[in-house]
Design goal:
alpha+beta; MutS, DNA mismatch repair protein, domain I; 15 strands; 411 residues; Alpha-Beta Plaits; 4-stranded antiparallel sheet
Amino acid sequence: MPNLCRDCFIIFEGNAEKCPHCHSRRIVSHPELSRLSIAHIDCDAYYAALHKRDNPELNNVPVIIGGGKRGVVSTACYIARSYGVKSAMPTFMARKLCPNAVFIKPNMKLYIDNAKKIRAIFEEMTPSVEAVSIDEAYLDLSGTEKLHGLNPSQILAKIAKRIEDEIGITISVGLSENKFLAKTASDMDKPRGFYILSKAEVHEILWKREIGFLHGVGKATTARFNKLGYKYIGDIAKSDKFKIIAQFGEHGEWLYNIAHGNDNRKVESEHNAKSISTETTFLEDIKDYELLSGSLKNLCEKIARTARNKKLVGKTINIKLKTHDFKTITRQISVPPTQTAKTIFKLADGLLQKEMTKAPFRLIGIGLSELLDENSQNNYDLFMEKDKNLELERAIDKISDKFGKDIFKRF
């Protein structure tokens, strides 16, 4: 069995409990250690970890990022989580669960500045980095062994150590052969974890877990599956694929595939991304237009800012809706190259209005596709947009980075 030492990065054979070179007991063992190359990296309690790094007196104290009488928890350190505190929980509830916690107001500049440093470490090792959020990313390390003289598992161990030494926080690593399994692996061993999960192990490790363990599957979806007799991931995997699709549509097909460990999505870096998209699933089905439009507006702001950060413009706006019975509706419209929330929302909201007869909806999403480098266009409409709206939204980006995203509404 091949083993990796997470501290000195050597690979050795055998069943040793510690590294023969540096005697560390931080060993990762897996029969496919040297073959797998898709990784998911998640910074451990990122916001809280940075505040603890900068104030060592907080190291053994429960820390919660968020606050205000009507606020919600942004994130919480692992000590606070042991009391039951979770992200998006109302502040008053978090205070009841963990009365001794230290509440800290978010500092977006601190988080963004350090995220850029972490991203730079990733990109030293591979150009194929897909940022999922400010504190997590997928890496495709295929072909990097020739460049660095290390296989992907060694590179990941080196990245983890560099982030600890240079940034002062820890990360959890998942290594596999596709994005779904890599993300699942990174959730298996937190914090400061390193977990390897191959497709061959899916039936042994995942099938016995309840459906709610799958990331992206919430309480409502779990309840619906349970009602029809599916309790465990293995129940989905062993069922008839066409029956699952008939019952749950596109969502059922996706769950059937990942229950078998199948995921053909590629790691898409900024340089090869074909689209930018985001979506939200509601706790309850919504048919009220104002609520749906408000959610859509927030999503449009999010992808517009992502486009500006990546210096991209898009020529197609896509809207995605999922009905209460899991049927997916997609609509799109072609536009002059854009990266502003105001433009994207105006057109996307028009698409939403036309589909309101099919409400209620359990999910709404927005996408920007046919992406181009913003500097490659001399388009008249983009120039006009820049003149009217783009500079304003970029100015708001800077203010939000400094003082927080909720300081004012964009439009």
